[in-house]
Amino acid sequence: MTSPPHIAVIGAGMAGLSCATALQQAGFRVSIFDKSRGPAGRMSTRRGDGWQCDHGAQYFTARDTGFRAEVARWEQAGAAAQWFPALRRFDADGSSAVADPAERFVGTPRMTAPAALLASTLALRSGAAISELQRASTGWRLHAQDIGAFGDVYDAVVLAVPAPQAGPLLRAVAPRQAALADETSMQGCWAMMLQYAAPLALGFEAAFVNRGPLRWVARDSAKPGRDGTESWLLHASAAWSEAHMALDADGVAAQLLPAFAELGGPAPQHWNVHRWRYASTATSRTEACSWDAGLGVGMCGDWLNGGTVEAAWLSGRALAQRIAQGPA
């Protein structure tokens, strides 16, 4: 009896998990690798003593019918719920308005929950930072930083990582794919997590900010299923973040906290910062995914498909469908 093809998926964010799940459902053997301690990628949550705060993706929409059905499955499992924040928009001219009432979802009890649900059925190797791909006559071999070579040989490799991380892995073994990744510019984002002893009454629970260094603020404690002390999240704009990537934590706080104060936010009891080096794509791409059947190497991710959680899930699913079709 012939064993099913073995696919290595590098990256356990939403795109990688979506691709791996669809491949496994199609009968492939799948191994997924991620450099972090667990799955989720930028759908991340920072946790501390008595508090938590989503510091990556803040919510997701579900406009595609297939993804909406997947979100319904997450809701049924208790891993996601609709979020109805009091939402405002603060514009550059000093005006403010109630923001659009689009249907928004969050992971419950934290943003990592959908990823954890998907990963629960997959063979995931965490703490494995893949540093080299080798193409042999029998397939692909993977090497990980501080670990070395893995013994398995894989029939195909999927890279579900940001473009600047995919390029270096592919240049020597898949130059066409590497070129696609290398020509994609991604921008960073500074995130700041604030903790308070009591709830803040600011008149809003989330806001789009179109002035100064901030782009988004949200009361994380107001999301469904949350517990712990009052916490707020500040995201800086891509332009400001890119211009201040070299700042230390105190330097970030010195500029973001006054911007939050302009919106009514008082000084927090405690704060933390996190630098997302590759948070968004400077110019949106529309490929959905990339697959070289001859080499057996593909790429998926939100950077290929529009930059959202929904785009990441759709990108991973699209790549799985391409792989399952077999050689063109």
SSE inventory with pairings:
Elements: E1 6-10, H1 14-25, E2 29-33, E3 45-48, E4 51-54, H2 65-76, E5 80-83, E6 87-90, E7 96-98, E8 104-107, H3 113-119, E9 123-125, E10 130-136, E11 139-144, E12 148-149, E13 156-159, H4 163-170, H5 175-182, E14 186-196, E15 206-209, E16 214-219, E17 230-236, H6 238-243, H7 249-262, E18 270-281, E19 289-292, E20 297-300, H8 309-324
Parallel strand pairs: 1-2, 1-13, 2-9, 6-15, 13-20
Antiparallel strand pairs: 3-4, 5-8, 6-7, 10-11, 11-12, 14-17, 14-18, 15-16, 16-17, 19-20
Helix pairs in contact: 1-8, 4-5
Provide an overview of this structure:
The chain has 328 residues and is of the alpha/beta class. It has one domain (6-324): Polyamine Oxidase, Chain A, domain 2 (Alpha-Beta Complex), CATH 3.90.660. It has eight helices and 20 strands. Pfam families: Amino_oxidase, NAD_binding_8. It comes from Massilia soli. This is FAD-dependent oxidoreductase. InterPro entries: Amino_oxidase, FAD/NAD-bd_sf.
